[in-house]
Amino acid sequence: MNFPFYIARRYLFSKKSHNAINIISMVSVCGIVIATMALVCSLSVYNGFSGLVASFFSEFDPQLKITPRTGKAFSPALPAVQAVKALPEVAVFSEVVQENALVRFNDRQVVAVVKGVADNYEQLTEIDSTIIDGEFRLREDVVDYATIGAGAAYALGTRAGFVSPLELYAPKRNEQVNLANPAASFNREYAQVGAVFRINQPVYDENYVLVPLALARDLFGYDTEVTSVELRLAEGADTERVQRTVEELLGSGFVVKNRYQQQEAAFKMVEIEKWMTFLILCFILTIALFNIVGSLSMLIIEKKDDVRTLRTMGAGDALISRIFLFEGWMISGFGALIGIVLGLTLCLLQQELGLLKLGQTAGEFIIDAYPVEVHFTDVLAVFLTVTAIGFLAAWYPVRYLSRKWLRAGE
Predict the structure, then answer these.
(1) Which pTM value belongs to this model?
(2) 192: helix, coil or strand?
(3) What are the pLDDT digits (tens) for 46-68?
(4) Considering only CA atoms, which of 125, 265, 144 is closest in space to residue 203?
(5) Which residues pair with 109 in a beta bridge?
(6) Residues 6 or more apart from 40 whose CB is under 8 A from it?
(7) Interatomic CA distance for residues 85 and 92, integer angstroms
(8) Which of 298, 372, 373, 376 is the most exposed place for a label (fewest CB within 10 A)?
(9) CB count, 10 Å around CB of 400?
(10) How far is residue 154 from each of residues 25, 109, 123, 363, measured CA to CA in Å?
(11) Whole-angstrom distance between the N-terminal and C-terminal Cα of the chain?
(12) Over the stretch 69-105, which tens digit does the pLDDT of each residue have?
């Protein structure tokens, strides 16, 4: 066994002659345990919220989305786009036309994102699981149907099955506004409300209206162009690898985004909050770890006779310094390990039992309890952070105070 480590271990677990050293050591360990446990739990809760947000978006967003790098529209008949469609990993290839438009219902109106989708849209996303009123459909006989977000439906005062249709207005492309007759400068289409969806994300619930692709092309003045192509991959396909393949096929003229990149702003906000909380807790951890300074300082004073004996036996300054440095490392290391174990235990209990509730009554929020998702990389980051700060907290008294007090006693 390493000699400095052996002596440090004996010092840590042996009873000190001054009880204050034991108390300060225990306070140091407890402070590290609590701060480490808080780090593990808080990072896991933020991971849970990220997963929750991702699950909402995944019901509406495609796995991959292709848009032009410049301009609004492109032809899906391009050879490169058709090569993407022919990839064996692509299970669903869906064309989309999406623009802002004015939506009216009786005497109410809102500006919404009108998204024209192809007939295979149900195979692309899990839209059926978000329907709260009516039935998702695009066209029956000569009637076009719209599926509208719950927030937009509330603003318009409509719901599935109403007799009056939605009126959709969009300015004509490449035409100037006719000041004498402004209404002539707009395309107008009609669609019955077939269903209302809700995914608990205002960006969709309050703004989106899904309509047939042909109706959207007529409304926005497109012939065969699309504003984007959305892809669903085959079961078991590697999304990152397929994304790279699609980017290589399409070249620099197109942008290919996965689900995370499509909602980058929302996920970045959660990540920023997560790591800001991490930094704040690290500051608290640093304060707790500086108890090690007091503990080691008192231990160095108490063990002056032992140090004198070790020097007599031939021990050098480096070996003696390592003894007390290992002592500080073990305080931070044991505190980190115990804190991580307790933090993981609390996370497991929260996952299984939902001990910490979001509201006073069930159903008050989207979920009843705080979501928790443990990532190994976060646990590793916490352990490395605690041990690194613990090393710095132990290095100061060993580097400076031992020279002052131990040499003075020679």
Answers:
(1) 0.68
(2) strand
(3) 888 887 777 666 667 888 999 99
(4) 265
(5) 104
(6) 339, 340, 343, 344, 347, 374, 378, 379, 382
(7) 8
(8) 376
(9) 11
(10) 61, 11, 27, 21
(11) 28
(12) 988 899 999 999 999 999 999 999 999 999 999 999 9
